[in-house]
Amino acid sequence: MAHDKDKLAVGGVLDKISPVVAALGAILTTLGFILAFTTAGVVIGASVDGVELIGDEMISNQLLFSQKIFYFHMPCGAASMIILAFTAYYGIRYLTTRDYRYDIRARIATEIGAVLVICTMLSGMMWERFEWGVWWTWEPRLTTYFILTMLVIAYFILRTAIDDPERRAVFSSVFGIILFVDVPICFMVTRLVPSSIHPTIFRTDSGLSPDMLVPLLLVMFGMFCVAYGLFRTRLRGEMLAQRLEAMKQAVDE
Amino acid sequence: MNSVLEQIYSTILPSAPYVIAAYALIWAAMLVYVVYITVHLKKTEAQMAVLEEMFAQRQVDVTESIKKKD
Questions:
Q1: What is the pLDDT of residue B30?
Q2: What ipTM score was computed for the predicted complex, to two decimals?
Q3: Which of A122, A117, A197 is nearest to A150 (CA)?
Q4: Could you name the CATH architecture of A17-248?
């Protein structure tokens, strides 16, 4: 139990490195952004009536600039799935230990997951609006990700609806685990039901050339680092608020 | 620009507002959350400072009351 308490304490190594990790995340995402718009090749679209020499390539298709949204859209989606895995993990830990600090961590992970889900949805809608002329379609991944969005919103509604802290933590932990069930479905659905909107990127014969893969990976790891920095900062704030409440109660007594 | 080049580049300008909007919305969402965290932290720190001041004042009051008894 003492070892568990040490692991859950704030102010240790995990917090000391968090500003560095967050700064690294900012640098990686910025670098990825720059590379996405400079060195990354442009994706080709519909064919045109002729061929032109552009640079050192013969181009006979439209150049799709809107594809540049992909370099942040996909990392946001990936980061949201990873952080929602932590929601489930902390939920399981709370249910096995009944330590409220796991519940706090689960809630914060879901908050950051919600932010990333919103980023993914908004960027995806912008891309789809231009490419397909509609704001939304009920395509497999979009549908499963929409379900995930609704589950994330429902998580917070559930927390708000329950006053008793222990019941709230138990119900939230269970719901967080259920929420996470949709994540692998969301990830795998395009492998089971092929879609032109969401082709499978990560596969053994990846369709991405190195000039596209490098910015994507930079932004993805940068996004993970930013999420980590946000998580630890939010956690410290929340633990401070908990201490404040405890002190207020001590004063009242 | 000849007609073939026009066709090749035809989607770039029309798509630019959507690309800009996508990145701006991502950035804005992150910024809103960072501001939320910062405001929450500042409020907590301010309340903590008030509480610490209250404790310090109580300590002074207790010390003075002991001195008076003496």
A1: 95
A2: 0.86
A3: A117
A4: Up-down Bundle (1.20)
